[in-house]
Amino acid sequence: MDELWRNVPEFPVFKELNLEEKPLFDHLFTLSPPQISEFNFTNLFIWRLCYQTKISRLQNFLCLLANQEENFFFFPPLGEGDMVQCYQRLLQYLVGKTMHPKIVRVPEAVVGQVDWKASEMKMELDRSQCDYVYLAQDLIELKGRKYHRKRNHIKQFKEKYAYQYISLTPEWIPQCLQLQTEWCDLRHCEASPGLLNESSAIKEAFAHFEELKVKGGAILINGKVEAVTLGDPLNLETAVIHIEKANPAYEGLYPTINQAFLEHQWSGFPYVNREQDLGEEGLRKAKESYFPHHLVNKYTVTLE
Questions:
Q1: Cβ atoms of 196 and 47 closer than 8 Å
Q2: What CATH number is given for 131-275 in this structure?
Q3: Ranges of each domain in the chain
Q4: Crossing angle between the packed helical segments 148-160 and 253-265, to the nearest 10 degrees
Q5: Does the pTM exceed 0.90?
Q6: Largest CB tally within 10 Å, which of 128, 207, 211, 274?
Q7: Is the dihedral of CA 134, 212, 17, 174 positive or negative?
Q8: Which pLDDT belongs to residue 70?
């Protein structure tokens, strides 16, 4: 166990998150199986440039410090011990470094363990960051009246286009990156910090596809990648979908790759986590249109 921690400095010294820490994260996630989509090494790693993520060890906790435009905050610490004391120390560390010291994306399981009033901290639900979790078989079978439109979109796509679904292998990655470039050109990513950050994360995922051991799927039309998706196990019962991109010129392509990827790669998992809606109305409607089984609530913790 100590070997896994060997390169992690003691709090309050931090180092940048990199690939060599994957075994440590995987070990900690095995000890405490995560429910939130952020608690997955792939997710933390591919977004590390966006968040400038740094790590440190505080007792038996792995602490994750993030920074966006000089706005410092922590993700929930990973590990075991005095959770209240750890949270208090992390928040105190941020005092003077940022206007609003906070720990974000705190799982509901942690929230339920703490007497927040006595701890001189407070927590607040962050609805825009709550994850949407579905029954995998619901999204594969699309049975019943409520999925009628989804079935129709897929049927129309299959009737209109000759396509091929493939499990992603490294030789297809250049085409996947080309699809992302074309998608960004259409959506003018350069004008949107959020889309630029997402594009950076997607490029990181493909650049480290083999080291991260993610699973991917793609749909080819006329031999060209027109849709791609990547996912990972989140815990023993749940897969998490990190990326899903499709050429919007092909109507019905998004629901088709969504269904095909789950059927081919994740049918053995009861649940699929399709991450959050970020408070965007269009994204919320799209996620609700698949009828989630439940939401995974996340909270922000601050000082009283």
A1: no
A2: 3.40.630.30
A3: 2-130, 131-275
A4: 100
A5: yes
A6: 274
A7: negative
A8: 83
